[in-house]
Amino acid sequence: MAHSARRDSPELPDFSVLKRLARDQLIYLLEQLPGKKDLFIEADLMSPLDRIANVSTLKQHEVDKLYKVEYKPVVSTSDQLCFLIRPRIQTVKWVYVVNADKAAGKFKRYKIIFTPQKFYACETVLEEQGIFGDVSTDEWAFYLLPLDEDIINLELPEFFRDNFLEGDQRWVRTGGSALHLFHSIYGPFSKVYGIGRCSKMVYESWREQVKEGEQKARQAEVGTVFLIDRDVDFVTPLCSQVVYEGLVDDIFRIKCGCVEFGPDVTSSDKSIKVMLNSQDKVFNEIRNEHFSNVFGFLSQKARNLQTAYDKRRGMDIKQMKTFVSEELKGLKQEHRLLSLHIGASESMMKKKTKQDFQELLKTEHSLLEGFEIRECISFIEEHINRQVSYLKLCPLSLYFFTGLLPKDYRSLKAQYLQSYGVDHLLTFANLKQLGLLVEQQPGETLTVMESKMGKLVNDKTAGKLTDAFSSLAKKSNFRALSRRLSLVPKSDEEYDLRVPRDMAYIFSGAYIPLSCKLIEQVLERDGWTVYNGINHLFQLAILTMSFIASDAQRIILVMFLGGCTFSEISALRFLGRERGYKFIVLTTAITNSARLIEAMLDNHV
Amino acid sequence: MMKSKADEEDYWNSSKFKAFTFDDEDDEFTKLKESRQAVNSICGLVEEEEDEDEVEKVSWSGEPVGSISWSVRETASSLREQSFPKIDTTPSLPKNSSGYSLSSLFKGKEGEREMMDCADYVSDWSPEETVHRMQQGKAVSLEKFRSLQEKLLLLDEAVGVHDGNVITAVLIYLKKSLSKEVLFRELESRQTALRHFIHYLTESKEQRLLLELYRALGRTEDEALLQYKEHLRITDENKRRDFLKSCVSLPFSPEDAGHVQDHYTLLERQIIIEAETGGKVEIFQKFPRRASILNMPLITTLYYCCFYHYAETEGTYSSPANIRQTFRIAEKQYFVTALAARAKLKAWHDVDALFTSRNWLGFTRKKSPLSFSRVADILSKNNAPVQVLQEYVGLVDDVELRVALAQKYKCHFIVISTYRDLKDRQLLLGYRGKVERGSEEERKIDELLSNPQIRWKN
């Protein structure tokens, strides 16, 4: 709120065309099944669909009834069924209604629309179930959902797990296609920087698609592009968020740009859903602020509002009339928003004091700095002992990540399993596989493993495995990396959160997100020279590609592969204001610590 | 369809869209039909009903279509470029040629035509071309990759272009056309492909094959974990228990084997405890259970036993002491849980006993493996009365923390006595204003302030 943008900040492009494009394609697909039809929509597609179309749009195109895909028998009397789903084997298996209808001798028409694309594995399911051909399939190339004027979301949370945990590259081409679509509307890009394996693959896929297609010369609206893998920086999403928007996401979970505030916020008996974006004037001013500043701002705002209302005292009829017709509506709107955000802030304050939030933050900061590790362990232990929701145990992962002694590891794991169930053995296996859990090992163990694995490797990607080992080493090198890049500002200086001096303000001045720091450094030095000093800690694929010169270089697209947090978006907005850039974030999903840990869970059928 | 043809042609000709063209299909509609039949006969299967689709499609015309193609065209022209790279999804493409061969899966209309027109050189596609076509969703025939070497070249090519979708498609074909032994052997040296295969088997729930794969690769721990995971599917608790028992001998790491053993013992124990919920026992009537204890974590079970079975002797399976011993629960963990359970019941006497220890002279004193500030915290969350709370707040060593807690929990006497110990007259005077007028606390403060024996430091 206190910041004024630099005058030379460029304007953001208009993304509404993306919505129109997606909507028109969907309508086109629906028209391919003429006549009345029932539409089954996958649960996690409902919100994205809501952002671009509404029921009346669907009704206009002869959609009769709408259902949610719920993995239970279909009750529909329509003779045409259309399924709008993500390309997942499980969902396709569920479409067994066809078999039942077939057996009953009923003739119906079925169509599956996969979005954003179909996978061969899904079609194999149809083939194996003997309904290939009875069901027609289509693709709805709905890649880019603009959530705000500077956020575009692919809404593919599974990208993270599939790519980084399972090692499945099925979304690589999707990423390439998304970038391609963006490029064809807002490009051509002048420079592309990337870091991480997946970034490199997405880049190649995009280039491939550019070659296949044809690009007309046009005025570029976006110049510079960053591609960044989530596993380049796991620390940032594991930290508790303290910037307003991030905090709201941590506590209430923002879903597709929308949040549901319960009765404790609305101080009535009902919940309301609120869109959180730059259209909300009050929210827009506080979203990037450290939470400690928000209260003061809101109360100031409330006082101003009161003054504005008070104006009508002593007005004559004519003035009153103007006031009502011109100002009152705006004031009422502001009043509504203000009371909502005040309610939300209060509710968050209450929750956070209950959970010993201060202590949690202190522990996180100590872990980041590498101080007072014993205290951190006992804090974590106490949380485990008290069975505090395991999703709030991100300091644990953070601790794992920054490296821990085998003795501590075994003891914490045992206590964890006792508190949350032995089936979390599967979670631990996943954390280990992902590289989120780093047991400090003596050097030889790593070498033994490396040579053992080395024998297994002789295919084209052999080199990649070396990458994996380097990144294994890199992870326990977090502290060295953090020193090298000064991610943790010196703690002896007072940090004024009201006048942030760097991006660290998003974590109360305790830590600059690695992802954003890399971007800052590359922009500053016009290349990866920052990397030269740290490559021994951090051996990942990096790339720099220059294409044509363009005027739009100060408009920067940052594509996060595997998700990004609201805190990172706030940090980039800050960087943009400071340096006169405009950042557009293109992410596979919005993530936070809870979502990251949830993606690792396997203790369900 | 014919009616809309002009529109379509117009549109596709005016757009820069290259990959697919509708007019191809329309122009050669009948030819295509013949082609398809030819494809089907190649595959050895022709189905008759396929025309139904087409017949319906021909009648497809009219207002709504016009308006949509108009808007699609509008958007397209505003975007200039190939705005819908994937809209080629061929509405009128006959989809119902039955597919017993994988190739039929991968057909797109263009490929199909080519396949027919150029049936002879279909088999000439290199692995590279094949993979490229698959990436674009075009028709390919994988059947021609028959020798092991060709299959592997194809796989390596797919891995080389980093398209997981295509890698999996090739693997599905290899799975069908290679023996397990050969496939596993080849995957062992291809980590990327292997991970795709494992993920595919996991998603399609082919447990047995996946287990075989792990075994063949010597990945015993993965094998054990996968097998262990199966218990989640078993709903009957007795069957689940028996299954867990069988898991104990799986090739886990020694550490994990211990955890799995505990899992089995715990469920066995829970089944016994669950049977003891007799309606006669008073506590179950007073505090009816909200849920069954089956399949709950160990600490929840301990809490449950501290709640419902606290006084039982160590010999019974449900006594907290027995649970503590069987599962080697850490002292601190035990105390936290017992404290929470007894505090919930407001059994302050039990709380007191929990922390009271007697030394050899018979003096009692309070001892706790967790900090007294934490004890006070837990007690206050359970609405403990001030009399109970102040006992523990008073034991907090750190003076500042003690005062802060005492103020927070309104343990006035602790604040007062701490200020007295600090000989801080000013603070005590200040605190006088915070206690209720005419209260015992106020009297106590006055008494102290007027006590001539205290040497105040201010």
From TrEMBL, chain A:
Alphabetical keyword list: Protein transport, Transport
Keyword hit for Ribonucleoprotein: no
Any matching Pfam family: Sec1
InterPro entries: Sec-1-like_dom1, Sec-1-like_dom3a, Sec1-like, Sec1-like_dom2, Sec1-like_sf, VPS33_dom3b
GO biological process: protein transport; vesicle-mediated transport
GO cellular component term, pick one: late endosome membrane
Chief site of localization: membrane
Keyword Protein transport: yes
Similarity-based family: Belongs to the STXBP/unc-18/SEC1 family.
Listed name of the protein: VPS33B late endosome and lysosome associated
Gene for this chain: VPS33B
Automatic annotation (TrEMBL), chain B:
GO biological process: intracellular protein transport; vacuolar transport
Compartments in which it is found: Cytoplasmic vesicle; Early endosome; Late endosome
Keywords: Cytoplasmic vesicle, Endosome
Domain of life: Eukaryota
Any one of the GO CC terms: early endosome
Descriptive protein name: Spermatogenesis-defective protein 39 homolog
Organism from which the protein derives: Myripristis murdjan (pinecone soldierfish)
